[in-house]
Design brief:
By secondary structure, the protein is mainly α. The protein is built from ten helices and three strands, in the order αααααααααβββα. The protein has a three-stranded antiparallel β-sheet. Helix 3 (55-76) packs across helix 4. The radius of gyration is 21 Å and the shape is globular. The N and C termini lie far apart (64 Å).
């Protein structure tokens, strides 16, 4: 696979911006072109190259991510129960978390995407998340050890862990709402969601109303149906927390 000198420099600069341990930067130089090619592959969408793209490295990245996230939780929260560890890990390897990391490292500036995919604004978040996961796979393929990747990701995980653990519902608002309504002998929440805008990046693209016993309890918005339902569930929980006597 041929790669231009400009692209090589672009990837080297990108790797340096990640702030991996300095001693590993020598693995991403012109002399280590194989590793540069791994990174380039992880940053290439299938719309730009149907044969060499990030899909295989994304699969590897998924396995690496789950392993080192489990290791991080074990080290950081040694007394946490297995069920709680599993729940926390689901947030630390989620597509949403990967998208957030992708934004922070500005992965979009080095992505190679075909014109058709570029025009699809609804796919931007997904591509960023997938490429970030593939990048993790490419780093492992290049370095063949986990420690530098784990060390790089720890600050992202520490911030997310604090956010999740500070929330009494652990961000699982729909599950929490269903548990609450069932414990009080109420009906299962019913979500009715409509699209109110066609713009994919609009945070209020979808509007959702959640009903309990046919009564409208709360409304929510989101750029996806899932996010709108989650927002409505969060507001419904707050409603019940503020109206305990109405259970």
């Amino acid at each position: 696979m041929k790669i231009s000198n400009q692209r090589v420099r672009e990837i080297i600069n990108f790797i340096q911006s990640l702030k991996l341990d300095q001693k590993y930067h020598t693995e991403f130089t012109k002399e280590k072109i194989k590793n540069i090619l791994h990174i380039d592959e992880s940053l290439t969408h299938s719309s730009a190259n149907s044969e060499i793209n990030y899909e295989k490295l994304e699969f590897l990245g998924d396995a690496v991510l789950r392993l080192i996230a489990s290791d991080f939780i074990k080290d950081k929260y040694p007394y946490m129960q297995v069920g709680e560890r599993s729940e926390l890990r689901s947030h630390l390897v989620s597509d949403q978390w990967l998208e957030e990391v992708g934004k922070k490292i500005e992965i979009k500036r080095v992505l190679v995407i075909g014109k058709k995919a570029l025009r699809d604004s609804s796919a931007k978040a997904t591509i960023q998340a997938e490429a970030t996961e593939a990048l993790i796979g490419a780093l492992y393929e290049s370095l063949t050890i986990l420690d530098p990747i784990k060390d790089w990701l720890i600050p992202f995980w520490e911030a997310k862990s604090k956010e999740i653990l500070a929330d009494p519902h652990k961000k699982n608002y729909k599950s929490a709402l269903q548990e609450l309504t069932q414990s009080k002998g109420l009906s299962i929440p019913i979500y009715k969601t409509i699209e109110i805008d066609k713009k994919h990046d609009n945070p209020k693209r979808f509007f959702c109303t959640v009903y309990i016993k046919s009564q409208s309890i709360a409304e929510g918005f989101g750029k996806s149906m899932k996010q709108a339902e989650k927002d409505a569930a969060r507001k419904a929980l707050k409603y019940y927390e503020n109206n305990i006597i109405d259970y």
